[in-house]
Each structure stands twice: as C-alpha cells, then as structure tokens.
Here is the input.
Amino acid sequence: MNIALHVYRDAMSGDAQQLVICSNDSDLEPALQFVRRDAPEVKIGLVMPLREGAKGQGMISNKRLIAQASWVRHYVRDEELAQSQLPTHVQTKKKPASKPTHW
Here is the structure.
C-alpha cells in the first residue's frame, strides 16, 4: 500500500519524468493504472525482482504490471544484487543495525 501511494503521489507532484519500480506484485496494478490515466507523460519502468533465467524455473514476470509499464527488465543479476547490499553492520545513532545471518 505504501509503495502504491508513493508511486501515485510522485507521479502527480509533477517532479518525476519517470518512475522505476522493482516489484512483481499485482497489488501495484491499480496505482500504475491511475498514473497512466492521470499523468500519462510519466514513464513507468519495471524491474522484476527475479533471477536471470527464472522463467525456465516457472517464475514469470507479472503480465498485469507489464501492461502498465513503459519498459520492463525481467530480471536482476546476482552480481547486481550483491553490489546493492548494505554492509553487514550499519551504524545508527544508537547501536548498529545488523543483517541477520540467514539473509
């Protein structure tokens, strides 16, 4: 719900030329439809949070979201995901936030 509201709000603010969303969740479809209708000049990009080759494993990109997008990337490479991770410990004003070992 939060993502959907922010997507719509960002589109309607007039400050965004393009919104890029990393999700395969069909709950976002209504928000993307509203953006298409109310701010047709705003491009919608989708990056599906699937591994390269996931289609061969039965995991597919959400067709309903794709229908609302200006462009789509159907996967994220393992090395791209690894490069985008926060460190194991992140300093805060209190104690460090630590990534759980099972991640």
Summary: The two ends are 25 Å apart (CA to CA). The chain has one domain: 2-98.
